[in-house]
Amino acid sequence: xEIKKTLKTAGWVLLGLFVLYTFYFLWKQAQPVPDVYxxxxxxxxxxxxxxxxxxxxDPRRRVNIKPQTTxxxxxxLVQPGDMVRDGQVVARIKVIPDMxxxxxxxxxxxxxxxxxEKVERESERTRQLYNKGVVSREEYEASESKLAVAKExxxxxxxxxxxxxxxxxxxxxxxxxxxxxSTMDGMVMSVPVKEGASVSGTSMFSDGTTICSVAxxxxxxxxxxxxxxxxxxxxxxxxxxxxxxxxxNVRIPAVLEYVAPEGVEQNGAMQFEIKASTVIPxxxxxxxxxxVNAEIVLxxxxxxxxxxxxxxxxxxxxxxxxxxxxxxxxxxHQTWERIPVExxxxxxxxxQILSGVDGNCLLKGNKVN
Length: 369
What we know:
Number of helices: 4
Order of helices and strands: HEEEEEEHHEEEEEHEEEEEEEEEE
Strand order of the largest sheet: 2-11-15-13-12-16
Strand content: 35-45%
Low-confidence stretches: none
Helix content: 25-40%
Largest sheet: 6 strands, antiparallel, barrel
Shape: rod-shaped
Number of strands: 21
Oligomer: single chain
Radius of gyration: 45 Å
Mean pLDDT: 82
């Protein structure tokens, strides 16, 4: 009996201890865990605020070479990538006469011949009368001048017929509209036509057919766009760094030379065109149309007190930080004081502290638990 009583008593004691432990565990779990934050100390840094403008590399000088006459290309002497000189022949053309113009020129020749025959008869009569002393020398010289003009008109009409049918004439000398020449030094960028293709010449009624496009790839510029929120920070003469999309390890220095006075709406935002001049470094080959990112330094400050941006709390137009007021070692009982601060330049990671705290203050950073 005594043994059973003892066992029963021990069982109740164990049950009581288990219940007490359960209540203690639940109470412990219900207790709030204090928030613990890392502490951040302001440091002296150099901050650079920059932005990136996207755009392209384009040659500053680019021209489309076009023929002066209408015809068929019989020979193409260049292809994309070739280097050409000013005056170099790039194509030859076989003239196809315009029938209306050909008829006009032939009609002009016939009229000039008829006029010449008339003037020759009149000149001969005047010469005979002059020899007999009937007319004055002035009338005789006027008759000879009129004859010379009639002869010149006929020669001009015949020369025009040569130009219409062959593209050149003896009187035009070295001028030959069937030979197409480059008008500048540079690289051939494109040749949109082929041999045997029909082309039209430039005139007051037509722009003409482009034989090839030539650009000076030694003189290129960056053309891009920047958002309206940053355009006021740009000034002509600011330095840029160009990073071609095809060559991420290449950095090309440039100088801002143009900021558009008027923006253009793109995807609901106003974009302003910018241009920058650059000199291609030796050993770097850029191609027209390369996509480029331009890094622009908007603001830069050296040796200033700064802190991680996560430490800054913004409320309306003011900035605040939380400064540690408890023992730094007692992480379970941290207390903080909210202090207003004045901030300056931010590089996206760190922000300048102008006033409010010094370098000895420990600020509330990210939450640890």
